[in-house]
């Protein structure tokens, strides 16, 4: 079933049920109210007639055995009302008036008159008489002696039904008009919805959303859609990766202000003023080009689609190529060095100089063994110990002395805590090694590591012989994409990750320039927060 047919069926069925229910309730209420009104009106008329002097005198005379006829007087009164008939009876229920003259002087038909004659109470009943079935209202005629007769005011059922049907027909026309109006409104609403949905069925709409999401994620440029209040309404995975460094953050990014992700893009949107504009901005030291496309409807602008991508100019490509070439040369040199060592070892073995070969191997492994023994002795945490040993080998390759304090200590922790510690130690050592190596022409490069969990805190302290943090970057060094490294290096991520982990575990991160012109980074973490 199409959306139009489904909505039409549901809407018309709902309107029909409501209209039928209202019509039934309205019809029942109208009929009940009308009949109740007739009963009350009949009793009021009967009371007025019962207090008429001529009626009282006629009832007295009839009770005394004297002939009494008030037919003309009663018919004259009845003609001025909507009653079908008015019958006056004496104490013995003998008619003193009746629309049919031949029935005057005869007994009243029906037992419903006797409660009024005997007990003097007003009553209303539905009964059949000489004129047919009618609603009959009774009230007693009294004088100083007591009850001397009764007055019956009747409304024939046929006449009453015709009046009720007439009122119901009028109400029915009103109900039919309301029903027709509801159907027309439903048809207009459905047509409006179809135009709004571009005549697409719900399944097609869902399919198009999925297709658009896949298309957005397949585009290698960053794409962000915002509304008129600069809240993000759509974003692809590449934009999330560049802005937040985490593709899994998409649900948290949508509906949030653009300024939380990028102040630059937020300012561009404010300055665009509904026009297609292009601007440049930086994430760290990487420059991006952003193009803003306004989303326009008949009522005006409702937002922007922002497309941004890195500006890979000739200079950046050249730097990337140079970095790759240098890395390839380094690998080639290391391969050549190890090949030479193997050739030396092979020559010693072929010359049967086994003692010299063993001594040569011992010299190669002594340095690693000393470092390994020190790490094993002080660091019980296998994940961090393995990381430190790997960084020691990297320092050896870079010709940077890596010193591990003898009084280091670190126990075992849950795997989640180990991941955090590995990230902290690994990024800090990498930064220290690079800083020391970059400053090697001015001072002998070295990195010193101290890590301890003897007290209530875990303390990590890394000192390097680098040139230190540039004063211009001190206030922003922990922000994403900000780095003091050269453009050819990976930058702006390590310290950002370190800061996030420190904040997550409610720790502290400080750095200072020591009196020996070295840079010292210190981290303090509460052990209780790490083991929760």
Question: What would the keywords be for this entry?
Answer:
single chain; 532 residues; alpha+beta; five-stranded antiparallel sheet; five-stranded mixed sheet; 15 helices; 14 strands; rod-shaped
Structure write-up:
51% of the residues lie in helices and 20% in strands. By secondary structure, it is of the alpha+beta class. The strands form three sheets. A five-stranded antiparallel beta sheet has the order 6-5-9-8-7. A five-stranded mixed beta sheet has the order 10-11-12-14-13. α13 runs antiparallel to α14 (494-504). The chain is rod-shaped and about 165 Å long.
Order of neighbouring strands in the sheet with most strands: 6-5-9-8-7
* Contiguous uncertain segments of 5+ residues: 486-490
Order of helices and strands: HHHEHEEEHHEEHHHEEEHHHEHEEHEEH
Would you report the number of β strands?
14
Largest sheet: 5 strands, antiparallel
Structural class: alpha+beta
What is the CA-based Rg, rounded? 52 Å
The chain-level mean pLDDT equals 79
Q: Name the beta content range.
A: 15-25%
Cα end-to-end separation: 55 Å
Tell me, briefly, the overall form.
rod-shaped
In DSSP terms, counting alpha (H) and pi (I) runs of 4 or more, how many helices?
Answer: 15
Q: Could you estimate the helical fraction of the residues in percent?
A: 40-55%
What does the secondary structure layout of this molecule look like, with pairings?
Layout: H1 3-50, H2 53-63, H3 71-78, E1 85-90, H4 114-119, E2 123-129, E3 132-143, E4 146-156, H5 157-196, H6 202-218, E5 222-227, E6 232-235, H7 237-244, H8 250-253, H9 263-272, E7 277-283, E8 286-297, E9 300-310, H10 314-350, H11 354-378, H12 382-397, E10 401-404, H13 415-438, E11 446-452, E12 457-464, H14 494-504, E13 508-513, E14 519-526, H15 527-530
Helix pairs in contact: 1-5, 11-12, 12-13, 13-14
């Amino acid at each position: 079933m199409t959306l139009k047919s489904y909505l039409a069926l549901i809407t018309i069925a709902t309107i029909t049920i409501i209209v039928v229910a209202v019509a039934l309730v309205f019809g029942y209420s109208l009929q009940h109210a009308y009949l109740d009104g007739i009963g009350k009106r009949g009793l009021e008329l009967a009371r007025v007639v019962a207090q008429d002097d001529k009626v009282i005198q006629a009832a007295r005379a009839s009770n005394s055995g004297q002939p009494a006829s008030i037919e003309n007087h009663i018919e004259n009164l009845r003609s001025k009302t909507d009653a079908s008939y008015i019958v006056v009876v004496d104490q013995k229920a003998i008619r003193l008036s009746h629309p049919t003259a031949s029935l005057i002087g005869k007994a009243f038909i029906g037992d419903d008159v006797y409660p009024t004659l005997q007990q003097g109470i007003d009553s209303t009943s539905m009964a059949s008489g000489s004129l047919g079935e009618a609603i009959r209202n009774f009230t007693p005629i009294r004088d100083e002696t007591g009850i001397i007769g009764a007055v019956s005011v009747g409304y024939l059922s046929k006449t009453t039904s015709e009046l009720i049907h007439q009122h119901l027909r009028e109400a029915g026309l009103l109900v039919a008009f309301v029903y027709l109006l509801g159907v027309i409104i439903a048809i207009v609403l459905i047509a409006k919805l179809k135009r709004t949905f571009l005549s697409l069925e719900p399944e097609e709409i869902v399919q198009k959303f999925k297709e658009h999401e896949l298309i957005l994620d397949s585009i290698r440029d960053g794409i962000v859609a915002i509304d008129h209040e600069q809240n993000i309404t759509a974003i692809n995975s590449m934009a999330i990766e560049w802005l937040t460094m985490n593709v899994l953050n998409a649900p948290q990014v949508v509906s949030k202000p653009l300024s939380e992700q990028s102040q630059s893009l937020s300012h561009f949107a404010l300055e665009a003023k509904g026009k297609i504009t292009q601007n440049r901005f930086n994430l760290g030291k990487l420059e991006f080009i952003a193009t803003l496309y306004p989303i326009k409807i008949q009522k005006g602008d409702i937002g922007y689609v922002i497309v941004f991508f890195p500006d890979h100019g000739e200079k950046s490509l050249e730097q990337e190529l140079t970095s790759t070439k240098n890395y390839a040369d380094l690998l080639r040199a290391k391969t050549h060095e190890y090949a030479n060592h193997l050739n030396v070892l092979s020559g010693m073995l072929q010359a049967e100089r086994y003692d010299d070969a063993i001594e040569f191997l011992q010299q190669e492994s002594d340095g690693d063994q000393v470092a390994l023994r020190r790490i094993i002795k002080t660091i019980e945490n296998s994940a961090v110990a393995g990381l430190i040993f790997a960084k020691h080998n990297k320092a050896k390759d870079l010709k940077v002395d890596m010193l591990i304090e003898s009084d280091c200590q670190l126990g075992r922790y849950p795997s989640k805590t180990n991941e955090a510690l590995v990230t902290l130690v690994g990024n800090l050592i990498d930064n220290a090694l690079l800083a020391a190596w970059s400053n090697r022409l001015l001072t002998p490069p070295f990195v010193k590591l101290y890590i301890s969990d003897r007290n209530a805190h875990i303390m990590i302290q890394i000192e390097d012989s680098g040139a230190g943090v540039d004063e211009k970057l001190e206030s922003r060094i922990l922000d994403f994409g900000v780095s003091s490294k050269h453009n050819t290096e990976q930058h702006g991520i390590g310290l950002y990750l370190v800061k996030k982990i420190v904040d997550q575990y409610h720790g502290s991160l400080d750095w200072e320039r020591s009196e020996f012109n070295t840079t010292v980074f210190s981290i303090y973490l509460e052990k209780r927060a790490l083991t929760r």
